[in-house]
Amino acid sequence: MSESKIVICPACASANRVPVEKLGAGGTCGRCHAALFQAAPLTLTAANFDAHAGRGDLPLLVDFWAEWCGPCRQMAPAFAAAARELEPRMRLGKLDTEAESAIAARYAIRSIPTMILVKGGREVGRQSGAMPASAIVGWARGLA
C-alpha cells in the first residue's frame, strides 16, 4: 500500500488523504471540491490555523505580517514566489498579526515579518526579516 499524507483543504479546512505520489497532480477536496493546491499562500485565520498547523501532514510555513509593515509588503511577492516552488510538499500561509493577535501572541511574535515553519503542530524553525524568494525556499527546505 502506498504512503499517503493528510492535506488540509485551503477552502473548507477538511482533511483529505492524498497518496504521496499524487501530491504533484494537485487534486480536489473530497468535501467542497476546491483545489487542494493553489501555488499561492493561503490566508490563515483563527478558523483555519490549527487545522493547517496541527492536523495536516504537510509542513506549514507561516508568514506573520501586518498591512502597515513596509518590509512585510516588500516580502509578499517573494513569499508568493516561494509558494509556487515549495507546493505541494509544503503549505504556505500568511497570518495578519493585527487581525489574529491571539495566534501571534501564542507564537510570541515580536517583530514582523517573521516566518515560522510548523511540522506536526510544533515550531521547527523561525526567521525574522524580509528575505528574497530563493532564501525563503532554501531556508524552508533545509528545515523540512
Automatic annotation (TrEMBL):
PROSITE patterns: THIOREDOXIN_1 (PS00194), THIOREDOXIN_2 (PS51352). Keywords: Disulfide bond, Electron transport, Metal-binding, Redox-active center, Transport. One of its GO terms (cellular component) is cytosol. Pfam families: Thioredoxin, Zn_ribbon_Thio2. GO terms for biological process: cell redox homeostasis. Residues 40-144 form the Thioredoxin domain. GO terms for molecular function: metal ion binding; protein-disulfide reductase activity. Belongs to the thioredoxin family. PANTHER family: GEO12009P1. This is Thioredoxin. It comes from Sphingomonas populi.
